[in-house]
């Protein structure tokens, strides 16, 4: 139906007769002659309908409206001098049409395609039109390049892509599952997988050695922020490997992906930092290191302070830390209030600060300087390299909490200061040695930080086996971070029954419970499980960052909104009562209150 | 953890010190010295533990049992003359071990890996062990090669892989949906997609032009025969194309796939046959043409027969047809009975046959020859080229029914005669011009043969628009067939609102119903939908045929059994009542009878 795409023709083609097909991007009447920009997936070509070439076609061209689908045959001609359009690849030529077929007329669109649209509901309702916009088309094609480069690279490395089930089993650990009622086995349910974790480990037991999958995963969470109920991960696992092998593999993979999808060279290997160091210095397990503003420990400065908020925190085993926001002493009262809210949401009682307006303390603005001795102030200035114009922000309390509070304040300050405006850096980082266990106040037990199959570091293995539990135990678990976003993470796994049993015990999972919920995994470990480990990368976020977008919804063809709805197809929806009868389920209006038997 | 894989070392490596890791495939004691075949994903290498090299390792080697994971370091050595094993790639050498690490001990396996196992339940329960068998590993790797070749080819052709949602919308047309209750919108349900049909058409409206996806699809059907509740298809769609374009594309795709996954050259283009011809000649819409035994029309022969079963069928507008099973006059009574059952299951009342034992009718064995005149017998012999030793099988009745009956009988006879034993032919075929509509007796209306978006052939378009409905209307729908298996099918779609409306009307779908169920598709057609069409290939079956397997379960890592169960992970399973409360659903024991409110 075409001889060329709309981005192909150049001066060298002048004189050729060609056929193009696509959408009318615009139709303009210049002195009774219609000019259109014809658009297809690849670009634009100007077509002109002159009565002297074909009077019927010229007449018909007056009916053209935006987004009509048309087929144009004509001769490639040079544009008149002064009408060359350098903005498009075919700007030197135009098609002088000899034939015009209107393939499909279009109604007036609900929104214009060449303008950014802030009404996301409208975009989503007409997603098939939204996708026609150059930005969305480009994003989806970039996503394709990312998955293609991933598959090419992993295939070359000997990895085998294997599909694991979507109709899977509910696992009690982890997030909330989506359930699928079974009709053939009434009262029983499949669950959609949160990740193919168990399957990929079982493939390692199965001797596959190198597995990957670009896998759909599902979590039935409340959809705050930028989450989707279904998301995609690049999931990989290998046998006979250690952490170094996985790290090297993923660095190679990301290098290939950024090269092919964004034409960017990234470092062959990334910096590494332990989780403890990341928390201590950046107050985050996914530090954004494109700017400094590090957390500085002030324990020595305030150990004996008469300011009890500081000295009291230290006395009870906590810390006092601060960040220096260079040049931000002019912060507004509203901004201070916003930062204080950020700190409070992270668990602080308030936020102590000093606006360092001049050289001397009397020029400063702060609610706390009056409590500090001149020696403390000097020591603090020295520790933080304070200069006039700076803003100092403090945290005091338990170590991890203070780190988190200041980590969030640090990011909020950077946003207020526009520190990253125009910054094109791609700052990759490995965060290693995550804790193995965390303490869950609510249930009064340890929980797995990564998941129950994560291996402790060699040095801490005996402690786990001996039941000497603490949150100091470190795991062979690692995250890869880009510009403050977690791209993905993984771990080396436990492959021996004894160590796995010790881990379940550490998590307060009884033998019976373990046998019931993880029986097949424990069984598998008895039959010659190889050492193995892996990692998963969040594809949606990776593509989002490569495309320079702020939301994963911009890189998903048909995303759900924050109520889990697809506004285009109107899903989820009510269903025919017969479908529920077949499944032997019924809906309840309030917990425990049955509706009338469905359709009975 | 290794320097080489277990298939790599050759005589050229003799003298090198290497490290291998893998599973003990067997351990044998020869005069106090242990020999093992060490196995990894790639192959086998013999290792020998001589006390003179390392007495500790030699001692430890006596503990080795099948499927232990071990790491062996040693020197590559020539095998003694007479002990070279030509069956394995590394058969010229062995590793004389200097170190042995038992990485993970294995219990005795529930079954042996080197024997075929008929107990499929046992295989499925321990699927992770079943996958260690060479055949399963090979199948899964072939599957990976098929998907990789597919992606490479379609990427080169400008196709863009786009993920469509798994949490999708229930569609009333088609098979039964799996449902997923929504927690955020109680009483509402997602459905798992039976195919990404609507999404891919909407992507065409979105200007993507060339889409593909290796897509998970779901059908909640009773799992007779070789079906799975979730299956995978190679799904593709393109704009500005006609049937020729899709056919050419898929021929190229299959050529690439068979080359890369099976090293087989297949024809650059496949034969084509219309649906009508396929039914008429082979009695099947997916004919196996690797053998003849064509259906022959005997209408002229029996038009005036005194055998009323034949002449009556003809008089009422039906047909009389027969097949000649060459050389099968010696069929047993039991086989005749089995063929008769096949015919009856296909809708016949019985199965008329002639065992042509000799030249003359008096030597024949048949329940019907006594009713036939000598002229009829001569004409039949001539039409079917009957020779002594043949078996003739008849069908009489309505055309489509007779075709189907004889088509199934034809396949059953070929199986009884072992006609395809040792046949390595790959016989590809396009079946075109499927009917647009079928008549559904039960609902008393026409239904879509392919789906409601399928386009009629140009010639039949006016009839559909005018509401002149019949099952004679032909569609631009096509199937690709390999050796009697449907590999896949597709169609050119309707892209105009008026034609789609006529199609819905033909299917008895009211305007309100169409608006409710397909509103977004009908909307989309108003905004400049391009002409488009596509096809989907069943990946599981394609890989099964490439691997030479008889069941798709042999090419799926973790399949379900015919009750929809995964015996390994025990899914589907009962769930925590809290999960159901969160979803505001409850199970009912019998339709209409609520259980006690879940956990209340």
From TrEMBL, chains A, B:
<keyword id="KW-0030">Aminoacyl-tRNA synthetase</keyword>
<dbReference type="Pfam" id="PF01336">
    <property type="entry name" value="tRNA_anti-codon"/>
</dbReference>
<dbReference type="InterPro" id="IPR004364">
    <property type="entry name" value="Aa-tRNA-synt_II"/>
</dbReference>
<dbReference type="Pfam" id="PF02938">
    <property type="entry name" value="GAD"/>
</dbReference>
<feature type="binding site">
    <location>
        <position position="486"/>
    </location>
    <ligand>
        <name>ATP</name>
    </ligand>
</feature>
<feature type="compositionally biased region" description="Basic and acidic residues">
    <location>
        <begin position="575"/>
        <end position="584"/>
    </location>
</feature>
<dbReference type="InterPro" id="IPR047089">
    <property type="entry name" value="Asp-tRNA-ligase_1_N"/>
</dbReference>
<dbReference type="Pfam" id="PF00152">
    <property type="entry name" value="tRNA-synt_2"/>
</dbReference>
<keyword id="KW-0963">Cytoplasm</keyword>
<protein>
    <recommendedName>
        <fullName>Aspartate--tRNA(Asp/Asn) ligase</fullName>
        <ecNumber>6.1.1.23</ecNumber>
    </recommendedName>
</protein>
<dbReference type="GO" id="GO:0005524">
    <property type="term" value="F:ATP binding"/>
</dbReference>
<dbReference type="InterPro" id="IPR002312">
    <property type="entry name" value="Asp/Asn-tRNA-synth_IIb"/>
</dbReference>
<dbReference type="InterPro" id="IPR045864">
    <property type="entry name" value="aa-tRNA-synth_II/BPL/LPL"/>
</dbReference>
<dbReference type="GO" id="GO:0004815">
    <property type="term" value="F:aspartate-tRNA ligase activity"/>
</dbReference>
<dbReference type="InterPro" id="IPR004365">
    <property type="entry name" value="NA-bd_OB_tRNA"/>
</dbReference>
<feature type="binding site">
    <location>
        <position position="450"/>
    </location>
    <ligand>
        <name>L-aspartate</name>
    </ligand>
</feature>
<dbReference type="GO" id="GO:0003676">
    <property type="term" value="F:nucleic acid binding"/>
</dbReference>
<dbReference type="InterPro" id="IPR004115">
    <property type="entry name" value="GAD-like_sf"/>
</dbReference>
<feature type="binding site">
    <location>
        <begin position="219"/>
        <end position="221"/>
    </location>
    <ligand>
        <name>ATP</name>
    </ligand>
</feature>
<feature type="binding site">
    <location>
        <position position="493"/>
    </location>
    <ligand>
        <name>L-aspartate</name>
    </ligand>
</feature>
<dbReference type="InterPro" id="IPR012340">
    <property type="entry name" value="NA-bd_OB-fold"/>
</dbReference>
<feature type="binding site">
    <location>
        <position position="173"/>
    </location>
    <ligand>
        <name>L-aspartate</name>
    </ligand>
</feature>
<keyword id="KW-0436">Ligase</keyword>
<comment type="subunit">
    <text>Homodimer.</text>
</comment>
<feature type="region of interest" description="Disordered">
    <location>
        <begin position="566"/>
        <end position="600"/>
    </location>
</feature>
<feature type="site" description="Important for tRNA non-discrimination">
    <location>
        <position position="82"/>
    </location>
</feature>
<keyword id="KW-0648">Protein biosynthesis</keyword>
<dbReference type="GO" id="GO:0050560">
    <property type="term" value="F:aspartate-tRNA(Asn) ligase activity"/>
</dbReference>
<comment type="function">
    <text>Aspartyl-tRNA synthetase with relaxed tRNA specificity since it is able to aspartylate not only its cognate tRNA(Asp) but also tRNA(Asn). Reaction proceeds in two steps: L-aspartate is first activated by ATP to form Asp-AMP and then transferred to the acceptor end of tRNA(Asp/Asn).</text>
</comment>
<keyword id="KW-0547">Nucleotide-binding</keyword>
<dbReference type="InterPro" id="IPR006195">
    <property type="entry name" value="aa-tRNA-synth_II"/>
</dbReference>
<dbReference type="InterPro" id="IPR004524">
    <property type="entry name" value="Asp-tRNA-ligase_1"/>
</dbReference>
<dbReference type="GO" id="GO:0006422">
    <property type="term" value="P:aspartyl-tRNA aminoacylation"/>
</dbReference>
<dbReference type="InterPro" id="IPR047090">
    <property type="entry name" value="AspRS_core"/>
</dbReference>
<feature type="binding site">
    <location>
        <position position="228"/>
    </location>
    <ligand>
        <name>ATP</name>
    </ligand>
</feature>
<feature type="domain" description="Aminoacyl-transfer RNA synthetases class-II family profile">
    <location>
        <begin position="140"/>
        <end position="559"/>
    </location>
</feature>
<dbReference type="GO" id="GO:0005737">
    <property type="term" value="C:cytoplasm"/>
</dbReference>
<feature type="site" description="Important for tRNA non-discrimination">
    <location>
        <position position="30"/>
    </location>
</feature>
<dbReference type="InterPro" id="IPR029351">
    <property type="entry name" value="GAD_dom"/>
</dbReference>
<keyword id="KW-0067">ATP-binding</keyword>
<comment type="similarity">
    <text>Belongs to the class-II aminoacyl-tRNA synthetase family. Type 1 subfamily.</text>
</comment>
<feature type="binding site">
    <location>
        <begin position="538"/>
        <end position="541"/>
    </location>
    <ligand>
        <name>ATP</name>
    </ligand>
</feature>
